[in-house]
Design brief:
Layout: E1 3-7, H1 13-16, E2 21-23, E3 27-31, E4 39-43, E5 49-55, E6 61-67, H2 76-93, E7 102-107, E8 116-121, E9 124-129, H3 132-135, H4 138-149, E10 153-157, H5 162-166, E11 173-177, E12 185-188, E13 191-194, H6 210-217, E14 224-228, H7 234-242, E15 246-251, H8 254-266, E16 272-276, H9 279-288, E17 293-298, H10 310-327, E18 328-338, H11 345-359, E19 363-369, E20 388-394
Parallel strand pairs: 1-4, 9-10, 14-15, 14-17, 15-16, 17-18
Antiparallel strand pairs: 1-3, 2-6, 4-5, 5-6, 7-8, 8-9, 10-11, 12-13, 18-20, 19-20
Helix pairs in contact: 2-4, 6-7, 9-10, 10-11
The structure holds S-adenosyl-L-homocysteine.
S-adenosyl-L-homocysteine binds at residues 201, 206, 209, 229-232, 234-235, 251-253, 256, 278-280, 299-301.
């Protein structure tokens, strides 16, 4: 018999609705003294089975739910099956498989595997655990991934702060197989990008922008193109290859720019300039000097991790957009990316409207985009949607 977590009266509805996060406040009592990481049954106040999950008394999310079927153990077969289901989307539906492919294999709640992200970069995989229960099953996960994807190596990347939130000590390390070579690269839209999966940002590369880079590149031929927050050069290098007249890539991180320069060389692209700057300051400097661009991409990092930080985050987006409008020539294209999950598409559009009115510029949204489809959104956990990308014309 597994331990039972019994919900307070009238608190079961979100979990019958298959939302996977059970916060302490919804729980009436726990029966059977489960250890942190143990399997538990979630039960309604009236005694009905709701779902099965993994318990963690140290996390605000006391139970993460993985299965809504009764009597299904969360064992190796279960996780292998969940991963195989995630892979069918990438391989059979989206056709992302192939030599030197880069794609997200599994995206946590979006793939009904709360607390685990797996990316594939050619023959290597990176795994990121953000929950104790699934992190403590790493042997199981590694064995399932080996069986399903036959990689040369699997590397663990850790996110700062997870230890404290979940009570689990994790360190970046090789989990299995050979360490990744320093010149590991993937093919994206026919271009080659280096991926430093041991030291690069996040899990090594921003796979979520793959289709947005291709879409924006279509607008770039003959244009003056600014890629602000370029990381390893994703947007700017796509634009250069598409035939942009000039490309300026900006980032604050030297290792990121080093990767970007190497990526330019790897793809035989020469008309690209890179500058290490604070984008907030530098956009102002460019505007003061009278520089103009026809396409400006803004792809800043996440600005808010909790609700309290939203007003400050919106201020940051507002500031960036005010500066971008100053830099844009008439009929220019503004690409506004926002990976802050707590800021919605509506918030972003509202901010853009305010900035446009202030600047006395007419702005038309020509495309509302999201992440590439290997970053799906589970309809029962829409918090799993986070990336917005607005493409607008600025008159
Ligand atoms: N557009 C990129 C991803 C950008 S990630 C791509 O397509 O791959 C965000 C980037 O912003 C990171 O590379 C980080 O180094 C950079 N960054 C964060 N704050 C910054 C700042 N104030 N000025 C310049 N760069 C900054």
């Amino acid at each position: 018999m597994s331990a039972k977590v019994i919900l307070k009266a009238k608190r079961a509805q979100p979990f019958f609705g298959r939302h996977p996060w059970v916060f302490a406040g919804a729980i009436e009592r726990v029966e059977g003294a489960p250890a942190d990481g143990a399997e538990v049954d979630l039960v309604s106040h009236g005694g009905n089975f709701v779902a099965r999950g993994l318990f963690n008394s140290q996390s605000k999310i006391h139970v993460r739910l993985y299965s809504w079927e009764e009597n299904v153990p969360l064992d190796e077969a279960f996780f292998r099956n969940r991963l195989a289901t995630a892979l069918r989307l990438r391989h059979d539906v989206l056709k992302l498989n192939g030599p030197d492919a880069g794609y997200r294999v599994c995206f946590s709640e979006s793939d009904y595997l709360s607390g685990m992200v797996v990316d594939r970069y050619g023959d290597w995989l990176t795994v990121q655990f953000t929950a104790l229960g699934i992190a403590s099953r790493r042997e199981t996960i590694v064995s399932a991934l080996r069986e399903l994807l036959n990689p040369k190596g699997i590397y663990l990347r850790t996110e700062k702060g997870v230890g404290k939130l979940e009570g689990v000590e994790l360190h970046d390390q090789l989990l299995w197989g050979e360490p990744p070579p320093p010149d590991l690269s993937i093919l994206e839209n026919g271009m080659r990008f280096l991926v430093n999966l041991t030291e690069g940002q996040k899990t090594g590369y921003y796979l979520d922008q793959r289709d947005n880079r291709a879409a924006v590149a279509r607008l770039a031929p003959g244009k003056r193109f600014l890629d602000a927050f370029c990381y390893s050069g994703g947007f700017g290098l796509h634009a250069a290859r598409a035939g942009a007249a000039e490309v300026l890539c900006l980032d604050g991180s030297e290792p990121a720019l080093e990767l970007a320069r190497r990526n330019a060389a790897l793809n035989g692209l020469e008309n690209v300039a890179f500058e290490r700057v604070n984008v907030f300051n530098h956009l102002g400097t460019l505007a003061t000097s009278g520089r103009k661009f026809d396409v400006v991409v803004l792809d800043p990092p996440k600005f808010a991790r909790n609700r309290g930080a939203i007003p400050e985050a919106l201020k940051g987006y507002r500031r960036l957009h005010q500066l971008a409008l100053k830099l844009l020539a008439p009929d220019g294209v503004l690409v506004s990316c926002c990976c802050t999950g707590l800021i919605t598409m509506l918030d972003l559009e509202e901010m853009l409207a305010q900035v446009a009115v202030e600047a006395k510029r007419d702005v038309q949204i020509v495309e509302r985009r999201g992440p590439a489809p290997d970053h799906p959104v589970a309809v029962t956990c829409r918090e799993s949607g986070y990336l917005k990308c607005l493409v607008s014309r600025v008159l």
